[in-house]
């Protein structure tokens, strides 16, 4: 049995599928959703970028104001003038570090960030650095309508991960079952034509008309929001989406290989979509909670308060032990230890006491990210959304790296300011109101450590691994479909 | 045949279509699973919340004698109790903070949002019973409607019914009722029965909660009725089953996935929220925790003028306490204006979102479900307001102590005032009763009613024009 060649069948099917209004309606709706999602994400990230610019301006204005205030404290105080409060005197190192310091770490967005909103709707891109706060502080966030978070901001990542497969399933479910539903399948089967060849050509034509316009829409959409197209990130994104479509079309081809009716095919395909998108993550999430529940933040609050209380109770002992630990400070009297030097002993001690709870939370977060990366290979929608967010620089791993950078910045600030406070113990600058109204033990505002905003690089490796995996899965499914569709079924 | 006999007939036929019923049954299992998971999580979190709230109170009462203002800086952490019907519909609960530090000078943000704290896997699997019904119920119902109408056509039952002008309408109505009953029995009724039991087990079952469960059942039943009507109407209107299937599939995507996101984006575009950095900077500028020499001088002038004296020494109260009190009370006005404005803007967006219920019954039912479950934004704001009142009372009490211990200008709690800390009562939050939130949800109620009337009319029209 030879009959019509594969290429002739493919050419005929390509023409036939292209004539379907359904194809163009679905592709137009997908393009609209891509545009909407991409513009929405670009706008959202644009607002976060504007917030960062506002913060940079506020920092500059703060530094200018601090320097502007110095004059008031560098001149002699008239007799009888009380010592200025520590929180007003920028020349007082302790007051400056504790009350006036205004520093932030920022996470700029990558040019490819419109690809996926990722964790950027949940996690802050600006972290307020406080010297004496344990670790980098509280998990702050942008003030958004919680309803928007609950519903999910419509982004390109959502459209690609969830809507594009639905479009594939609808097109395969309806356009791949026409002959069966219209009762002309027996007529085709009567021809000297292997079912495998006929099905292969049909699936290939559907794949071409499904994947081609989707990839084109992706490139056009990204270009329209100003993403530079000729970059490695975009190339990997295109490959990833292609692999994603190969996977779903492979799945659809497998279902169509039994030559079902449209209702059966659509029902089964939607069932698979539902299982992969909702069912598996739900069950896996329940198992994760049962086996490895996240350390509770309420307990962290309790530990934080307990640590604060116990450090307050042991305050004097901690300071004396701190002085004794450093030979240079052994002769420093307790009464000469300034406010900031006190913090240089008590804050690390608070962090040490809090570390078991804090480290448990942080290591659980890191393990959860690694676990999700692995599970992404079992639950492709999870893997796809993680890979897209990784390319966009908005994934949880990038957020953790940003928080690590903020912590390093906090420690650099501590090294600088605590170091100066401890140096003052050995070389104090006595208060002399006749010389100047302020304490005059700190004027190095321009030497403060900086943390220039730097974007986290896109995570290409995970996206490439996911691309390869989806390709393998997709081609395996196509192979299985070809083997399964070896005979005509009525 | 009477309509009841027809419904009975359709219900029996439905029970035999196992393939078509399967999506509904699977969804029912997932809904129960999600409810169970939420109930367990909530119970665990509540046990912890109660214990840590008690520990916070004990710590507060055990504060050593110290500057009362220092005690106000130490403050108290308040934890939001989980609404009794959270396992049914968490509403916005996953996306708002669960605790807040009540300290001097600042109205802090509520922290520790469950979704932010969740692992990437848990975020992907963050489903809840109401959310599952609202997102995937339409698909299960549409598949059921499609199958039952297509089968009626294929078996020629429709052709038999058509000559009698009343029969097609009754036939379609019976199908709608049968589908509705099946969905209610599988998706809604088990939850309506279990939710009060779970609430009772937590000691939270009240008349208000029972009324909420009844209303939630009514909202979800109406939603299911609308979808059954829409599903049967579309399946009957389009003679080509492939077109009917495609149309129902597209309707599901649009009604359940696209419209809610479009609605919230529309509400945000119509009335955008101020930027986070702008809000925080404005509060920092207008209500600084540590004031400048200029503000300090202005505070002193105001305090002296208030008491009609010209020197601090002549004040009948402690000058430091008076200044603290003045600045604190001024900051209240700033917080009410800036944060209150932000919360009011969110509530306006909520009202607009509810009004978008005309686009999709899923939007209207989402808004109403959270309102009746006590998990919408107005009810979250009630907690914020209550906690903030408590904070203000705590800080004012401490400032008052600083002001009135004139003999001890440090504000240190003197040895004979061992009851100063206990003068601040323990924080208790009583969730508001039902009417709260409805003033913003009524557009959703109107939209839901409009949907059911419109879909019933559409079914009637389609039934009259029905051809085999």
Give short descriptive properties of this protein:
heterodimer, A: about 500 residues, two-stranded antiparallel sheet, 16 helices, B: about 475 residues, mainly alpha, about 0% strand
Distance between the termini of chain B: 20 Å
Assembly state (oligomeric): heterodimer
Low-confidence stretches of chain B: none
Give the helix tally of chain A.
16
Please state the structural category of chain B: mainly alpha
> How many domains make up the coordinates of chain B?
1
Q: What summary fits the major beta sheet of chain B?
A: 2 strands, antiparallel
Tell me roughly what share of residues is in helical segments of chain A.
55-70%
Greatest chain-chain contact: A-B, 88 and 87 residues
Strand order of the largest sheet of chain A: 1-2
Helix proportion of chain B: over 70%
Major sheet characteristics of chain A: 2 strands, antiparallel
Order of helices and strands of chain B: HHHEEHHHHHHHHHHHHH
* Portion in strands of chain B: under 5%
Question: Nearest-angstrom radius of gyration of chain A?
Answer: 31 Å
Strand order of the largest sheet of chain B: 1-2
Structure report:
- The complex is a heterodimer of chains A (490) and B (468).
- Chain A is mainly alpha-helical.
- Chain A folds into two domains: 6-21 and 157-275 and 465-484, no CATH class; 42-154 and 292-460, no CATH class.
- Chain A is built from 16 helices and two strands.
- Chain A has helices spanning 6-18, 21-74, 93-100, 146-151, 156-175, 178-181, 185-189, 195-224, 232-256, 262-291, 297-313, 315-325, 339-375, 380-392, 396-426, 460-484, and strands at 103-106, 126-129.
- Chain A has a two-stranded antiparallel sheet with strand order 1-2.
- Chain A starts with 5 loop residues before the first helix and ends in a 6-residue tail after the last helix.
- The model of chain A has no long low-confidence stretch (mean pLDDT 90).
- The longest helix of chain B has 44 residues, at 18-61.
- The model of chain B has no long low-confidence stretch (mean pLDDT 88).
- Helices cover 71% and strands 2% of the residues of chain B.
- Chain B has one domain (3-464).
- Chain B has a two-stranded antiparallel ribbon.
- By secondary structure, chain B is mostly helical.
- Chain B has helices at 3-16, 18-61, 68-74, 114-117, 120-124, 129-154, 157-161, 167-201, 207-237, 241-270, 276-286, 293-307, 319-355, 361-373, 377-404, 438-464, and strands at 76-79, 99-102.
- In chain B, helix 8 (167-201) runs antiparallel to helix 9, helix 8 packs antiparallel against helix 16 and helix 13 runs parallel beside helix 16.
- Chain B contains 16 helices and two strands.
- Chains A and B meet through helix 2, helix 4, helix 5, helix 10 and helix 11 of A and helix 2, helix 4, helix 5, helix 6 and helix 10 of B.
